[in-house]
Amino acid sequence: MPATARGGARPEEASPAPSASTSASSCMGTRPEELTARLAAAGPAPGSGCGGAGAGGEEVEHERVRALREIKNQIIGNRTKKLLYLRLGAVPSVVAALAEPGASPAALVQAAAAAGSFACGVEDGARAVLAAGAVEHLTRLLAHPDEKVVDASARALRMIYQSRLAPKFDVNSGKNMDFVLSLLDSENENVTELAAAIISHSCESSAEQLSLCSAGVPQKLVSLFGGSMNIRDACLGSVTAVIRNNRDVASRFASTDHGKGFRSVVGLIHDRSPRTRLLACLCLIALGHASPCHFQDKQIKTKLIMVLLELIEEPGHVGDEAPLALTTLIKDSFELQKQALTTNAVEKLSNHLLANPLETRRAVTILLALSELCSKLEESRSQLMSVEVSTLLLEALKHDWADIRVAACSCLKNISRSPKVLSGGRLSCDTVIGPLVQLLNDSSTSVQVAALGAICNIAVNLTPRKSVLLHSGVVSQLVHLSKSMDPMLRLKSVWALRNIMFLLSPKDKDFIVKELTLSTLSSLICDSEHFVQEQTLALVHNLVDGYVDSANYVIGEDGMVMDAIARQLNNASAPGVCIQGMYVLANIAAGNELNKEAVMNVLLPHRVDHIKPSFVVNFLQSKDKQLRVATLWCLLNLIYPKCEASSGRVVRLQNAGVILQVKSMRNDPFLDCKLRVCMVLEHCMDNADDCFM
């Protein structure tokens, strides 16, 4: 089964009520070591498979039921006791009771409840239960004639399926699909909930989702919405799992029976149960992301936002997860973020955040929702920046809980997209930079990455006042993190250096290069991760931009950096790497003759053999229009007519087949490319006789 339970699966452990025949003298307080030994000593049910047990056998069976019941009562909701019984090796004896054909219903009920409890919330417990073969035995017991045994077995299996270790259920198999459908048709509520849990766990691939859709599972789940609240919630979660990220399945679900299923889910966002309303919202969000064409009703979207904002006031899990659902709904959508703004989402979330302590899951999810609300709209950022919220964000950066620090950094990253925010007030660049730089030394990698994201954005909007950053000690921290073993830390630190380098003065550029060193710069250009290579070349692009002497960093020092760039371009790395590399060369080629010659030696190196064609021709033939444009810019700067050696460079490019390729691009579909092609050919005409062309 898939890793995590979704939808209606309930994490709480529920033990069956004791039957009327249960002895009142249960052995409460018995030591775990004694109970484990007594259970193991009870062994197989006496007389099982041999026509029944005598009086002595009944006593042994009764003792086993008492031991199982006591173990179950001790471990439910008690992680410490679960771990203790696991160390004592109690699980195999518990599961063994499920395997015996002659075991009494009372023993089976207690054993099933204990097995489910061991698997709930403790990974080692789930691993032990699975290793003992509990799933096979519990599945078989779903057909037991005693309804209490069926109930207990279904509950135990549902708990097992909440574990990421739960076994995979292959719904592409016709036999397995028939089994799932039979569980859905069961009149036993626990069995129906189990079926929904199995379905939620069986949607890892598009093929599995399509199999479930083709078998009519979504329609069957919708037909069960009229059942109890538990069944309705479980079925809602399963529908969400079946349609998630699958355009075909989501489209079929939304249009089948004239949209009956879709309308049923929409109706449930008005349900009395807060949990049902949240699950219905999550289902509609999944549908909207998978098939946007079936989710265009503005009224429904607005209602979703309003319902989720109301649910934030609910206690427990529902209130904690509602802001996260809102974040998912509005993510990357200017339209939905604007709608959220009109419903006073920023004000409501801010008020809730200020009225409650930060030490909660809900504070984390609210900060993330506020972060998303501020990602696109200036008005949202302005609304958020009250003195109280600014103070709270600064406090959150220093909070003991890493999740709070990450969420606060995320919020600051999007708020700092606005230069106005950093220009003064409580949350100015002077008050924010210090705490963020301190977080670069955080013990949590996720906090470091989040802090780097905020610094990246702040660096962009601090162009006139970058001295604040340079004097904060951030450069040395970024250089240190650029050497990290974690690729995300390398990426974000280089990205931050790139943004700091943008439009920097020659003196400050020199300071950064000395901190970074050309050796480290060359190593980062050849990093194992292409996205680090791309950002490093973008950093070099900003380094050589604007000042002719800046090119000396690249072509000087025995050409160490230039050699690294040449290697990446000749290896034809990812398009983004090639684009940034060509822009670096274009900027250098805008310089003096020495610079132009250095670039020519990268484009057309002097080889003994001329077998390998220049990568320039391949770049000009690329499907990536930006790579074609970057390459044409480089050629333009190399053959500018008023330069003394331009005609010689035109001849070399002609001989290498580069000019011929440019001529073939006169009708390039991308207008910018077409314009640069004309300019290159005009420069060639200016540099040579008509007969040469």
From TrEMBL:
Record localization: Cytoplasm; Nucleus
GO biological process annotation, one example: proteasome-mediated ubiquitin-dependent protein catabolic process
Entries under InterPro entries matching the protein: ARM-like (IPR011989), ARM-type_fold (IPR016024), Armadillo (IPR000225), ARMC8/Vid28 (IPR038739)
Keyword Cytoplasm: yes
tRNA processing listed as a keyword: no
Cited Gene3D superfamilies: Leucine-rich Repeat Variant
ARM repeat windows: 133-160, 431-473
Keywords on record: Cytoplasm, Nucleus, Repeat
Low complexity bias spans: 14-26
UniProt xrefs under PANTHER family: ARMADILLO REPEAT-CONTAINING PROTEIN 8 (PTHR15651:SF7)
Name used for this protein in its record: Armadillo repeat-containing protein 8
Native source organism of the sequence: Miscanthus lutarioriparius
